[in-house]
Amino acid sequence: MDEVIDTRRLRNALGCFATGVAIVTTKSAGQAPMGLTINSFSSVSLEPPLVLWCLDKSSETLPAFTAASHFVINILREEHQALSNRFSQRGHHRLDDVDVLIGTHGIPALREALAHFECAIEAQHDAGDHVILVGRVVAFDYAEEGAPLLYYRGKYAEVG
């Protein structure tokens, strides 16, 4: 028999790992461009260039992201806390008043992001209550200066 895990304590323990904060953006056929705050972004491979992020299966954005052919990971700057908060709320995913660049595949990227990675969907994997989306990086850019927005123990944090 498996040991019962206290999910609140597990969440607290996982919160000891500081993560960067990003907004992933996409545009599916027939839908407005959208974004979602994440902290599950990770590099997978340089050859080929692969990254991943995880999406909760209960997210209202799941159909759009799993149907899309491309997405963009936008790494947030420390001054983007309000933007992060906005795109983490249910029903607040439209990019209407956000300054964006349009990538080579028509997917918006946040103009002021610290870095962004335009990706083609490489794979999707079922993983418990999440879907892991693996993307092949097809284009990217980054700023030479700036500090990332971090998340640690359930709240925003700063470098140094």
Fold and architecture overview:
- With 160 residues, this protein is mostly beta strands.
- The protein has a single domain, classed as Pnp Oxidase, Chain A (Roll).
- The protein is built from 3 helices and 12 strands, in the order H-E-E-E-E-E-H-E-H-E-E-E-E-E-E.
- It has a 7-stranded antiparallel beta sheet with strand order 3-2-6-9-10-5-4. A 3-stranded antiparallel beta sheet has the order 1-11-12, with no helix packed on it.
- The radius of gyration is 16 Å and the shape is globular.
- The N and C termini lie far apart (44 Å).
Write down how many β-strands occur, each being a DSSP E stretch of 2 or more residues: 12
CATH class: Mainly Beta
User: Rg, please?
Assistant: 16 Å
Structural class: mainly beta
CATH fold node name: Pnp Oxidase, Chain A
Tell me the number of helical segments per DSSP (H or I, 4 or more residues long): 3
Q: Encode the helix/strand succession as letters.
A: HEEEEEHEHEEEEEE
CATH architecture: Roll
Helical content stands at 10-25%
Low-confidence stretches: none
Give a quick set of tags describing it.
single chain, 160 residues, mainly beta, Pnp Oxidase, Chain A, 7-stranded antiparallel sheet
